[in-house]
C-alpha cells in the first residue's frame, strides 16, 4: 500500500445517513444523483451527510425534509455500510422510515422513482447502496449444514426444524460424506427447502448444482481457479472468502454474495486468526458485494453484524438445531 493510500485508510469516514421510504403500495423511493456530483446518474436511497454532533435520526429527518419536503418518523436501523471510494471513505447508515408526512418532491432537482422491491437490483447504484438492497430482500441468516454423522433421517429432521424456525437460505455441506449417500441427502434436502420456500446452495459441486437447478457455494481455493461465473444468472452463486483478493475475485465473477471470516474464534477452524469486527469492516469497505460474517456467529450477532456492513451471519452450530 502506498503512502497516500495509508494516509487515506487512517482518514475517518464521512458519516452519511439514508432512509428506506415506502409508499402505501410497498414501493421504495430512490433518488438519482444529479450532474456535477460524484457518481452522477446513479440511483440511491435518499439521505445525506450527518453534521458534527448531530444524531443519525436527526440528520435523516433534516436531510429528507430538505431534499424531499417530507417529515418522517425514523425507524429501526437496517444496515451500516463502510465503503471506500477513490477519493473518500464513508459509512452509510441506513434506517427504516416508520412513517412520513407530506408530498415527496425532488427539491434539489433530483429525479425520483418509486421502485417495487423486486426491481431494486435492476437500478444502477453506488457501491455502498448495493448491500442495502440485499439487506432488504435477502435472508439475514445463512445456515451451513454439518456433516451427517448420525442417521440420514436425524439429519433431515434437524434441517426441517431449522426451516420451520425460519431459515430461508441453506448451504448443503458435508465434507467426507460418501458421494452416493450425499447425492441422495442433497435431493431430499432440496425438496425440504423448496417446500419451505428456502433458497438452497450446494458446497463446491457445480455439476450437481446444475443438475438440480440449485445454487452453488464456491470454496475459496475453487473460486480463485475460475475465470467465469459457474452458473447462469438466476441461479445463486456464493463464495467463501478470507482475503481481499478472494473478495475481488468473487465480485469480478459476479457472485451474489460472499461469506467472510472467521470473525471470532470457531471450533471449525481452531487455528485460524479471527478477523474481529474491525477486520471484517476493513474488507467490507473495499467491495460492493453483499457479505455474511462467519466464525463463532449466532442469531444474537445479527445486529452487530449489520452495524459493520454484513448482510447477516452464516453459521453451522449457531443455526443448526440440537
TrEMBL record:
Answer yes or no on keyword Hydrolase.
Answer: yes
Classification via Pfam families: NUDIX_4, TMP-TENI
| Requisite cofactors | Mg(2+)
The chain positions of domain Nudix hydrolase read 12-138
Task: List the InterPro entries hit by this protein, alphabetically.
Answer: Aldolase_TIM (IPR013785), Mutator_MutT (IPR003561), MutT-like (IPR047127), MutY_C (IPR029119), Nudix_hydrolase (IPR020476), NUDIX_hydrolase-like_dom_sf (IPR015797), NUDIX_hydrolase_CS (IPR020084), NUDIX_hydrolase_dom (IPR000086)
Tell me the protein family, please. Answer: Belongs to the Nudix hydrolase family.
Q: What is this protein called?
A: 8-oxo-dGTP diphosphatase
Species source reads: Noviluteimonas lactosilytica
